[in-house]
Amino acid sequence: MQLEILSPGILSLIQDAGRFGQHGIGLTSGGPMDPVAFKWANRLLNNDQHATAIETTVGGIKLKSHGTTRVAITGANVSVKINGQICKQWQSLNLALGDVLELGYATSGCRIYLAVSGGFKLQKQFCSNSTVVREGVGGLNGSALAAGDKLDCHALISQNDPHQLLAEKFQPTYGDAVTLRVIPGYQQAHFSALEQNRFFQSEFKVSELCDRMGYRLSGPTVACDIDGILSEGICLGAIQVPKDGQPIILMNDRQTIGGYPKLGSVLSLDLARLAQLTSGGRVRFEAITIDDAHNLLALAQHKSEQTQTEEKV
After folding, report:
1. Half-sphere exposure of 287 toward its Cβ, with a 13 Å CA cutoff?
2. In a 10 Å sphere around its CB, with 0-12 CB exposed, 13-18 middle and 19+ buried, how is residue 313 labelled?
3. Under a CB-based contact definition with an 8 Å cutoff, are residues 231 and 145 in contact?
C-alpha cells in the first residue's frame, strides 16, 4: 500500500514526534511545528502519538492512493477534496484504490497535518523519521517531498470500522495574533528594567524571515548590555536578541548552540499557536514563573486526556 505524491505543495515534510537525544552530535529535534494538531491527526486514526505523518505548510499537496487506507487532516483551515468531493478536516476519511486526495491553500493558520492509518513506514535515521532539510536527515533522503515520491503505509483491513471525529468545540482556532507566555532566563539580568518593560508591553510582528528554524520578529528595539555570550545549548522556544534588537524565537529546526543573549523561553504550549502565524502576524509577550509553566503543562495534559473523539454518525 502506497500514497503517491502528485504535487508536493509549498513545503511538505515527513515528521514524527521529533528526534531527541542527538544534540551531542549536532542534530536538532525537528518534529511537528504544531504538535497539538499533529497528535490529533494520529488520535483520529487510533495511531500511536509518535506515528509518522506529513506536515505541509500553507497547503497545495495532492496524493493518489495505491490501495485502501484511512487518513485524517488537521491543523490550518484548508479545503479537502477526495476525487473532487469536499470532505471535512478533524475526522477520519477512507481512501480507496485510485482515489486522489487534494488539499487547497490555508485560509487561517499555515501548518497542516496529514496522518495515515498506522503511520508511514520509513527507515528511521538517528532514532526518528523527522525531516530536517538543513541537516539532510529523516523522511525521504532528508529532503522535502517531491512529485513522484511514493510513501509506504499500512493497508486498511476494513473500511467499515466507525469513523472518528473531534467535535468542533474542541478544535483549535487560528487567528492573526497571539500572546506568548515566557519563562525568563538567567540572562534576563543583562536587559535593564526599561528594556524588559519595552519587550513585555510592546506588540511585535512576524517578519518575512519566519520558518521552521526560527521566527524573527519586527518591532521596538530591545537593547542588551552585552553583544554576545559564549555559545551554549539552545532550547525550543528560546528568545534570542541579536545586536539589531529584534527578537528571534527559535523553533523545531533551530541550531543546537548559539551565542546571542536570551530573554527567556516561550512556554512550549504556545509555540503551536505561534507556528500557525505567517508574516504580518501580531505577537505579544507575558512573563510567567517556572511553577506557572509546570502547572499549565499539567492542566493541558489533563485536558487532552479527558477530551475524547466521537464516532461519526
Report:
1. 12
2. exposed
3. no
Closest C-alpha among 283, 127, 281 to residue 204: 283
**Which amino acid is residue 223, in one-letter code?**
A
Residues in the chain: 313
CATH assignment of the domain containing 201: 2.40.100.10
Low-confidence ranges of the chain (pLDDT < 70): 157-158, 313
Q: State whether 42 and 146 are in the same domain.
A: yes
What pLDDT was estimated at residue 313? Answer: 64
pLDDT tens-digit series, residues 213-226: 999 999 999 999 88
Count of the separate structural domains present in the chain: 2
Instruction: Write out pLDDT tens, residues 116-135.
Output: 999 999 999 999 999 999 99
Do 239 and 116 lie in a common domain? no
DSSP of 151-196, one letter per residue? EEBPPPS-TTSPPEE--GGGS----SEEEEEEEE-GGGGGS-HHHH
Give the separation between CA 287 and CA 264, rounded to whole angstroms: 9
Range of the domain at 184: 177-305
- Contact present, 179 and 250 (Cβ < 8 Å): no
